[in-house]
Amino acid sequence: MTLPEQRTVMIRFEGISPAAATIAAEELRRKLQKSVGDGATINIQKDRGDTQDFGATLVLVLGTPAALALAKGIHDFIAKWGDRVTITTPEGQIIATGDGAKNINVSEAAEALRGK
Fold first, then answer.
1. Which pLDDT tens digit goes with each residue over 68-101?
2. Count of domains observed in the chain
3. Is residue 95 domain-resident?
4. Which CATH number characterizes residue 110's domain?
5. 109 assigned to some structural domain
6. Which of its termini does the chain have fewer beta carbons within 10 Å around, N or C?
């Protein structure tokens, strides 16, 4: 049996306080975990070791089938929270940042998350 290709994606919350970013990270983690189920491992990572915050960066390890659910979850989250999310793939692509993030194209984002 061949295992699906796995990719690591990082989601950072920028332009907000560390406390607000921690809250946003936890909310998005819960939302995405519901969307992708067992299709991804989602953990929160501390940005700095010298602070007490729980972390504000999500690290996702996902199989390619989970990419569409992940992109849809991110789109819905951005629509609620606004333009505070930067998504970086191993290729260094930034998929959603700034005011245009609210209009993220789910299909294009899913392709980028898949590494296409």
1. 888 888 888 877 777 667 888 888 777 676 676 6
2. 1
3. yes
4. 3.30.70.600
5. yes
6. N
Task: Specify whether the CB–CB gap between 35 and 69 falls below 8 A.
Answer: yes
How would you label 70-104 residue by residue, b for 16+ Cβ within 10 Å and e otherwise?
bbbbbbbbbeebeebbbbbbeeeeebbbeeebeeb
Domain that holds residue 16: 6-114
Write a three-state SS string for 7-59: EEEEEEECCCCHHHHHHHHHHHHHHHHHHHHHHEEEEEECCCCCCCCCCCEEE
pLDDT tens for 9-63 read 888 877 788 888 888 889 888 988 888 888 788 888 876 666 666 667 878 887 7
pTM of the shown model: 0.73
